[in-house]
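>> received
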Amino acid sequence: MHISEMLKLLCAAPSVSGCETGALDAVNRCAADAGLVFAPDGTVGSLKAALNPEADGGVLLLAHMDKIGAMVTGIDEATGFLRIIPVGGMDPRVSPAARVTVYGKRALPGVIVSTPPHLMKGDDAKKALPVEKLTVDCGMPYEEIREIVSPGDRMQFSDPLLRLAGDRITAPYLDNSASVAALLKAAEALRGKTDRRVEFVLSAREETGKAGATTSAYASDCPVAVAVDVTFAAAPGIKETESAPMGSGARIACSPIISRRISDALLNAAQKADIPYTVEVMGRHTGTDADVAGIAGSGKAMGLVSIPIRNMHTPAETARLSDIEAAAALIAAYITRAEI
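>> returned
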């Protein structure tokens, strides 16, 4: 399957943090060419598969599959509008007027209600309302929608993936569908090419505390782990030291959380395979699953590979396919090296 087709399926799959297993069918369709079949890993909601599962040692590869979104807290009796709270870091500046899918007893299309600028006055016209003060209109009266939607139901952005100029794409949930796709393309490249045990974990609840990576890494006896996530692409208002240009390839992390040995091995693999990359230097934690996976149980030698994207945590996240492919190629090149 072409990586753009993978991304269409993965970005649209229902997997708001805490309800990730709804994406299982989409994940397994995308994993078919790699010969992988994912299944739930424990009770938290992560998904897991493996190449050469009987081999000793091995490498654990993680990419979180959960998404930011919102949760229903109640229904307004007068309008039928849904009251919500955010799940993860939903950006309140761009949420009004966004299209969503509400996952109740059946999926419902909806739109986050937006007050027209003509009617906004004073300070309200200058600031974004918190998500907790927004509502969702599914076009149904209270008597109808209460039979379908209940408090606790999730919703996520529903804009389709679009191709921009060149190999650029935009969609909700490239964080972190881009990294899931990178792992699955790496698995395709590794099929029949390595005798190592390679465990693939698509972790749950990263956006709300990293529970999936914590539990899956604890359960894995692989001595080495590499997380794949997204990072900030260069854009107006973002420091050069905190971003990388789109099109610059995979981003290899150096951080106190990260094993210098694994970072060096990733750098060496990129250089020998002529894979484009940049180095991301962080003085503390990384904000990814690497922060918890590396210290789960007795610990693992931890690495982190990231993909630059723009407009993170909005319905218009933007990336380049070449950067996702570079991350996939880097993971495959690293795994097939004699020493890791």
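>> Residues 38 and 182 are 16 Å apart (CA to CA).
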